Amino acid sequence: MRLICGDCLEVLPTLADESVDLIFCDPPYNIGIFSKMPPDEYLAWCEAWIAECSRVLAANGAFWVSHKAPDVLVELSRMIAARGRKRINWVTWDKYNGAGDLQGFMDGYTVVESLRSFQVMAEYLIYHADNLAIALNLKNKRLHSGLTCDAIERRMGYVDNQGRGSRLFYRWEKGDSLPTLADFCLATLICRGLIVRQLDLSLHSELRRDYEDLRYTFNNPGKVSSVWQIPPAASNGHPTPKPEALLERIILATSNPGDVVLDPFVGSGTTGAVAARLGREFTGIDISEKWVAFSEKRIAEAQAQPTLEGLA
Question: Three-state DSSP class for 238?
Answer without folding.
Answer: coil
